[in-house]
Every structure is written in structure tokens, then in C-alpha cells.
Amino acid sequence: MNTTNLPEVTNYLQSMYHYYNGDLTAFINRCNLIFSEREKKFVDNRMITSSIDQHPHHYPSPTGYLESQPTYTGTTSPEGINLPLIALPENIDDNCFLLTIPIALATCSIIDIIGNLKKNNGIINLGTNENFIEFFKGHYDKVSINNASVLNWLFRQGLSHSYFPKHKLAIGYDFKNPKDKLFFKQDDFIILNVNYLTFIVKHIFVEAIEESKTNSNMQSRYETLLKYNKKDFDKNIGKLD
Question: What's the whole-model pTM score?
Fold first, then answer.
């Protein structure tokens, strides 16, 4: 596609979509592989990552084919120093990590920036919650204002600041998840349906790219955002040792 005559904001969004869609494709391929392996071992595929105060785990625990001893994991720093081995709970195995946390965080970043660019109030840094509500405008039948706020305050904020969603919440990707619900309940957990989240966000993302081609306000806000970013860069880059 010839991007020469497109607004800068459109080129920016198209590049972002390229990377996001690539990451999402890799994420789905990993899920497919893991689900296939788990089915061979007759293990229930339903897995969620729970909130920090519920002792983060994947549910149900895939204990049907695990060894009884704990698993250990470690890593090596760039300097070649071996870091300590960490004992993992007995009910966790390498195939339970579906990358739902990073893909949910990346999706929330998409919501945040596009919601910011679409706003008409001229204020570039007016809070993440307003950006989330703006992003889903025109699609409140699929994600209501209240649900957009819950997505931000309880899931996005939890994942950003404490790695896990907040109290009695979880996130999950599963082909058996509801096709039309952002949140659903399973046992004692309210679960963010990553299947639905990524589906609806990609749909709105494509709409935003098309809108940016003719919406001068989005280009203006993009230019203002670049100025804010440069200001932060100039203020802080000199602090590097």
C-alpha cells in the first residue's frame, strides 16, 4: 500500500496494527498448540489466570499428568551470572502459560491510545478511563460504558501495576468461552474473556484506521501527543547513567 499521501496518524495506526496483529497471531498459534497437547493428555483446557489475592493460578489445576515434585525455573543474566532457581507450585507446568497477561495488556494499550486520539476535547492527557470509554463509543451495545470502566479500573490497572487482575478477577483465553460476552462468571471468578476482547478491539481498530484518513482532529491529537512524548524524552533522557 502506498502510504506517502496518508496522514501521519494513519501510518502510525497501520504500523501499530501490523505489530499487534502479528503478536496476536503468534499468541493464538501458541494457544492452539497448547490446547492440542493438553487434549492428547485428556486434560481440561479451561485455564484462567486469577487475581493476586486469590493465589494466582491456572484453573482447573492440570494435575492429571504432572510429576509430584515441584518444577524449578531459572535464568541467566546478560553478564552470565546464574540467577536463583525458583520452586514453582506442583500444579503448574510449562504448558499452562498462554501469554494472556501480555496480550491483554497490549490490547488495553491499543484501547488507550486510540481512545485518546479519537477524543474531541483537546486535552491530550485526560485519564485512561475516558480513553477507554471513548474507544468503545458507537459500540456500547457490545461493550457498555460501565464495562469499559471495569476493564480499565480492575483489569488494566491490575495488570499494569501488580501483574495480575484485581480482587476475585481472572483473565482467560479458551475456544469454549462465550462468543458475545466481555466478562463471564466461572465458579468464584469474574473472567475477562480475551477471545471476545481481542475480536472486538481488532474490529474497532480497523474502523479507527479508516477514520484517521479523513479526521483532521486525530491527526492534530497525534501531533500533540508527539510533542508530549518529546517533552518527556528531553526531560528524562539526561538522567541516564
Answer: 0.81
